[in-house]
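Backbone shape codes:
===
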Amino acid sequence: MNEFCQDRDLLGIEPAVFLSSGRGGSKLIVGTNGQLSGTTFTSSGSNFSSAGVKPGMVLTVYTTIPAEGRAYEIISIDTAAQLTVSVLRPSVEGVAIAPPSGTALQFIVLTYAAQIGRVSDALSEKLRAMVEASPIASADFADSAQLRQAAAYGTLAAVLVAQAENASAEDANWGKAEHYRAEFARLQTQLRLAIDVDGDGLAEQTRTLGNVTLRRI
């Protein structure tokens, strides 16, 4: 499964999806004994590794109500019970920014990896359709800020539709979902696939997703 963005990318656009009910996401681990000191988060007795927690996911900490909590990006899993976390950085190469310290924190690691995978696979299929006559596989697609943002918008559209399910037509999530769906469609028309056929570092072919038609065989 492709992943053209991470939970941290969703956090940078729509942090509320990590502070809400989490409908549509997967809660990998929850706890009540978290401690934050600098960029180190520990929870005695927890096992983040076995729970499937990965860098790029999001840790939410709170005292009583998740919606009033704070969400941080996970930089690394240091031991079974210890993470390195940060206030969301402008880029993954940035220096970790320490959150406020705290003890006896309740916490959740919630991921939308499944939705990210589905949206990324759909984008990958569109890219594959453009190069089906060339020896290029989806695994060869290079990451880019544009591709990452498109995948994030597509994922948020799906997540917010799930969160608005059974809600009234006035529910704010419907409007947000439509906004991100439209942005996802718009960004796809701006994506370009540059193909360096002879490996000289210069693109001999450039194609756009804006004029791709998928064929059902």
The chain has a mean pLDDT of 85. The helical segments are 7-13, 48-51, 113-130, 145-164, 172-190. The first strand starts at residue 26 and ends at 37.
